[in-house]
Amino acid sequence: MFKKFLLVSLLISFNAFAVGPRSEVWLQGGNGQGSGNFIKRFLTVQRNIGPDFTYTDSATLGATITVNAYMLAAAVYCDYYNPGQAHIGMSVNSNQLSTDIANINPLDTLGFINSNSSNLDACITVTKIFNVGDVIRAHGQTTGVPSGTDVSVTFHVTEISN
Amino acid sequence: MIKFFLPLLLIASTAFGGVDLSNKFKLGDGQHSNKVIEADRGAVSFNPKLRWNDGGAQWEFSNDGVSFVGIGTGGGGGGCTTGPRSEIWVYNSSGGGQGSTNTKIRYYNTVGRSLGTDITRTASTSLGDAFTINVTGVYAISVNDEYSAAAAVIGISLNSSQLSTDITSITAANVVGISNAQGAGAPGGLSVTLNLTAGDVIRVHGGVLDATNNFASMRITRVAF
């Protein structure tokens, strides 16, 4: 019993060397935007693994992924617009949720890309260190832009290491 | 209560080499040899272990109880793994195409890099290339491609059986990601990082891509456990 107690204690102490799966939120399919902003919403949760992210969907505020632990993480957002071009971006901790991602405070911009033609998907990818409390959003251009709805629309954040 | 546990502590102290109740737990017989801490998982095929490798003078760990990896370097920690990580990079050099049987799966004719054993590439001109994950972990995948006649659909699928169907029309759960080349002859790309499980099969899964081009490439790298 005592040996097991010590062993468990030791294994707990080695928790810093955690093995997978790492926390991951994988959203798929577009579901419009928050009613009061340019923040994307999503249809399907393909994965929501681990405790280090909290995914919240709001009809008014859009989708948010909140970071619960200091970490290195990779994020990707893919979307498109019919019938034209669109800014497709990601923001962190932005309070300019009804502003084109291209015009918000640069400190809050994770990155954005332009889809060049109607119905053509474009993806923005970033890998960076996130802090506890960071809020990541799929941030668009204006009301209804981008407008993707199908399976090609993806918002996917994965923890790589702590 | 203390009187009850004290004899047990003394017995355990002898078995483990020494217990200082305030600050230190010691394992070993005082001799130069490997020291092992093992997680007993019962009637299963393997037990994970932590090991002091006396000959190698380093702490190591093993998830499968057989293959050990050093924990950091020098006098301290710094990570669970030592590089390089497993990685496969393939591309086309005036060749490649999509499978003759699996018509939406890309295959490549040149290997730029193949490191480690965590990923197995099965190359096939009929089935397209399949990248099988051998060790559960976090993997980063990047693809680039194009179609010279029109905008191309460029995608990554996971465990799909619909290998002659445009990725935009396969089962959604098998779609890791989709992007478009933004016009005829304009290459496009996609990068995704995600948890993958041993046995998972990743494929570069398109719509229509050029039969041969020099813009097609695929990298898959294990980035974490």
Textual characterization of the structure:
- The complex is a heterodimer of chains A (162) and B (225).
- Chain A contains one helix and ten strands.
- Chain A has 162 residues and is mainly β.
- Chain B is built from one helix and 18 strands.
- Chain B has one helix at residues 2-16; strands at residues 18-20, 24-26, 35-38, 49-53, 58-62, 69-70, 87-91, 97-98, 106-107, 110-115, 119-122, 130-133, 137-145, 153-158, 175-180, 188-196, 201-206, 217-224.
- A five-stranded antiparallel β-sheet of chain B has the order 10-7-18-13-16, with no helix packed on it.
- At the A-B interface, helix 1, strand 1, strand 2, strand 5 and strand 8 of A face helix 1, strand 13, strand 15 and strand 16 of B.
What's a concise summary of this model?
The complex is a heterodimer of chains A (162) and B (225). Chain A has one helix spanning 2-13, and strands at residues 24-33, 40-49, 53-58, 62-67, 71-79, 86-92, 109-115, 122-130, 135-139, 154-161.
